[in-house]
Amino acid sequence: MKLSRTQFLVLSFLVEQGDDKNITQRVIAGFTGLAVGTVNKTLVFLNENCLTDNYKVSISGKKALEPYRVKRAVFIAAGFGPRLVPITLNTPKPLVRVKGVRIIDTLLDAVCAAGIKEIIIVRGYLSEQFDQLKYKYPTIQFLENPLYNEYNNISSMMCARNLLQNAYVFDSDLFLRKPGLITKYQYTSNYLGVPVKRTDDWCLETRNGIITRVKLGGQNCYHMFGISYWNSRDGAKLADHIKQVYEMPGGKERFWDEVPLDCFVKHYNVEIRECTFDDIYEIDTFNELKNIDETYKV
């Protein structure tokens, strides 16, 4: 059965909590952002339809959530990271350590904690160094992008374009400080963003919660973070649209995000998923790295 958004929010929350005996309607409301009355009505529906038994999710309830389960995580990790020189002269940016932790590990740990077993990393620059990840994350699969130094990151997505259904896509140079943002279920396609009054960085314009445009610099928009989710329908469309743009004149110079959020934006209803600047570190330059981790000041 297709779940409404409120039914999904309540049901997925209950699954995540497992055998927690302290769950109340107010706890559910506080976590999901729903009104207590809405939670009450939703629980009545779920109980009447045998999806839950009080606060316990039934086998039928878990089956109802299956279409929303995240099946895989795709990491774009092929680039050089020129603004982080000199540290990236010998180390790919995702493998740079921040306070002793590799940047990509913060994302991989969150993915593993959410029970997502299929993990694909598209690599290019100093690709052999990524092999070290296998010791901690043995299920990782690698895709090679031999064109990483010639074209933009759309070339990496060309390698992974058939793996985007029910999938997270990560820029691998983000230091995740709130692992709970990565969950085992997602209701629909979305991008993470922080509401801002003004930014000179890449940002997302929205209307009624739906992304209408991606651009560099804007006002009353969302600062864009490179963490997105694509449901089955949108992931299938993306495979074709990425190939179309890649083969267009100038298409190889595009960022892959421009495909669904600019070139073919009318074909998608991608939602904004709000987060904060405290949730994720976006480390673009060596000076920013030094400000976060003083060991690099030596």
Structure description:
- With 298 residues, this protein is an alpha/beta fold.
- It is built from nine helices and 13 strands.
- The strands form four sheets. The protein has a seven-stranded mixed β-sheet with strand order 7-6-3-8-11-10-12, sandwiched between helices.
- β10 (190-207) and β11 form a beta hairpin.
- α1 packs across α3 and α2 (25-32) packs across α3.
- The longest helix is centred in the C-terminal third of the chain and has 15 residues, at 232-246.
- The radius of gyration is 20 Å and the shape is globular.
- 40% of the residues are buried.
Number of strands: 13
Mean pLDDT: 95
Distance between the termini: 58 Å
The helix fraction, in percent, is 25-40%
The major sheet is characterized as:
7 strands, mixed
Spans where pLDDT lies below 50 across 5 or more residues? none
Number of helices: 9
Write down the secondary-structure element order: HHHEEHEEEHEEHEEEEHHEEH
The fraction of residues in strands falls at: 25-35%
**Shape designation:** globular
How do the strands of the widest beta sheet line up side by side? Answer: 7-6-3-8-11-10-12
Helix/sheet category: alpha/beta
Q: What does the radius of gyration come to? A: 20 Å
